[in-house]
Structure formats: C-alpha cells, structure tokens
Amino acid sequence: MTEATTEEQPFRRLRYFHGQLLTARDFQREQEYFREKLKLRMRCLLGYGVVCGLFVEPAPPSDDKEKHEHQARVHITSGLGVDCDGNEVLVPGSCAIDLWDALHEDERTGTTVWVGVEYTERAVEPTRTVFNSACADTSDCDFGYTEESYCVRVTTKTPPKDERCETCCTRCEHKVLWLARIDDVDFAQPVREEQIHLDVRRFFGRRVPTVITGVNWRHGHTYTVNEAKELLGTQKNSGGLVVEFSDGVRVDSLRRGVVEIQVIEGGAGRNADTWYMGGKFEEPTDGDGEFTDHFRYRQTTRETLQDGDRVLITVRAAFILDHCCRPVDGTNVGGRVPYLGHANADGDVETETGHDPEPEPTGCLVPPTGIGPWTSGTGAGGDVFESWFFITEERS
Known about the structure:
Layout: H1 24-46, E1 49-53, E2 56-58, E3 73-76, E4 79-82, E5 88-91, E6 95-98, H2 99-102, E7 113-128, E8 141-155, E9 177-182, E10 196-197, E11 212-215, E12 222-224, H3 225-232, E13 241-250, E14 259-264, E15 274-277, E16 279-283, E17 291-299, E18 310-315, E19 342-343, E20 349-350, E21 385-392
Parallel strand pairs: 12-21
Antiparallel strand pairs: 1-4, 2-3, 3-6, 4-5, 7-8, 7-9, 9-10, 11-13, 13-17, 14-15, 14-18, 16-17, 18-21, 19-20
C-alpha cells in the first residue's frame, strides 16, 4: 500500500500550564497555527478562486490630458477571492489602475495585458513598547497590528496555468488571482469594454471542470434537408457535428457509443417512430496526440430525413475524460451552449441560422456568474449533453 503524503509540516499548538513564561514568539506561533489550519481547510475542502465581485471595468477617461499622458486605465470592483494557498483576498472598495504605471518598464511594449490581485500583509499602528526596540526612526515602538490586504499585479506575460489535478496535497507556485485579459491595449487611449475578457478568471472551487464551449449547429433551429445533410456530413467527408471543449480531453475516451444521432420522425405518414443514424469520429485522428480540444462526428449512413423530423444529438459526457481523468461536465443548461459557426471558402464565419429559425432567447443571456459566454455544466460533472434541431422541406 502506498501512503499518501503532503508537503505540510506537523501542526503544533501551544500547551498552557501554570507558571509558564510566554513571549511574543509563543503568541505569534499560536496565531500561525490557527491561520495555517484555516488555510489548509479552505484549499483542501473548498478550493480557491474568485468568490464574488472583482470585476475589471474601463475607468472613465481623464479630462486632464496634459497631466495624464497615458489614458489606458481600468478599475477593479470590490469583491472576495481565495488564492491557491488558502489566503482570503478582500478588495473592500473599487481600485483604479493606470496600466502603464502598473507595468514593469520592460513589459510596456506588449499589447495584451493581464490584471490580477495578490494577497499581501503590512504592519500598521506603531505602538510604544515596554522595552527598547528599533522601529523606524525611534527605538521605543513597534507595529501593533498586521493588516491583511492585497496588491494589484499587471503583466504582459501570459500567466502560467495551474496544471495540478490535486490542489490540496501540493503547494502552488503562482499565487496571483488573475481577473481579466485586456487585448489590443493602446496606452494613449482609454480601454473599451469589449477589450476586457473576464473568462480568464478561475471561479471558486476545488477544481476547474472541463466543459463544452461550443457546437457547430444551432440548438432548436430548423434546417432544410440539404442543410442538415451538409451539417451531418451525409455526402461530404468535410462535414460533421463539431463539439469544442474548454480544455483537452483524452482521445482514447472518444469511443463508439459516446455520441448518438437519433431521428424522431414527424410530418405525414409515420409519426413518432425513432431510429439512429450510423456515424464515426473523423477528428481527432490516431496521429493527433493523446488529447484534443474538439471532435468532429460525421454521419456514415445515408438515411433520408423528411419534413417534421427532429434530430436529437446526445453526447455522453460522463464517458469523456479530461487530462485529470475526470468526466466532462456536459449538461446543456437551458440549451445555451453557443453556436460556433463554420468558415466558408474565404475564411469568414457564416452566421446563417437555417430555415425558419427559432427566436433567440431574451433572458439569461449570461450565466449566473455574470460572465459569459455560456458553457455546458452545472458543477456536478459528467451527465449527458443533449441538443436537437428540426427538419423542413426545401422551399423556393
């Protein structure tokens, strides 16, 4: 049997007894004992990430352009996060940041900027001591409190990704909570809202689940027979259903039976009968490596679709494993997983919705976190991804 090991040192707590002489060191170690216990429970039982708030938004442009040559500024809203070491990072109020001033002088040539916060401490409230000690310019005071605070980190270097599958037993190396990526930064111009991408943040939890981020068909829409054939790859090898993931999934978990295309017949004649289309994975191929961030599943039989049919697509996400051998969180919540589109011969993305499309939703345009776009997943992991579209006859 292999024993589980951690990098933690044994905990020692102060044992009081009558006549014991206590010094500042003893009380400091007692504080450290409770703080380390809290941090251990936080990161091992609950996880880390952004709990609430901490949005990065454009700051209003400065009116005094002579004194403020660089106009690229943002502000971080109040909020709470927990870093990967278990420290609580509290931002009590909005914080304005001049990106030029915050960047190291060697990084000011980049146009993509990452903004984050990091836990920090500082000694406050100088207090006179009974015994002489060195403190600033005097020899008879010391700081009486430690203020738990934060500092803002700004960089043009891509932050490292936390590749750990188990975040409890191994300590992390990079403790900054990254909140946003800002693209195409011109330091002489104000930052626009569309330049700020908040999807780089890690939401609070023990792990970041792999989810489905997009598909190449529109959920609930109506396609003509020919459009459906092109989408399913009935006649062209380049066709097929494409599903994209937020991170790499194991190629060897994409097996026969993971994806099913079911047709529920409608219209005139037979109605409500059902049958399954044959299909296979065209991508990834055997030579594409151990992991892939998407797959393409193409119909290999040539069954006929007719007016009124419903094509039901099922992806058994519980059988698709990520790089940590955990199942993909695949629930298609509200049918909101976004449409990817597909590139035409000129490289542009087509946005055709098919014949007689369903109206776009008007509510819940972003997930409950307030940060879009939608993806699959409820946080529970596994489950089944379901989506469908309808068939209509050709019309002139």
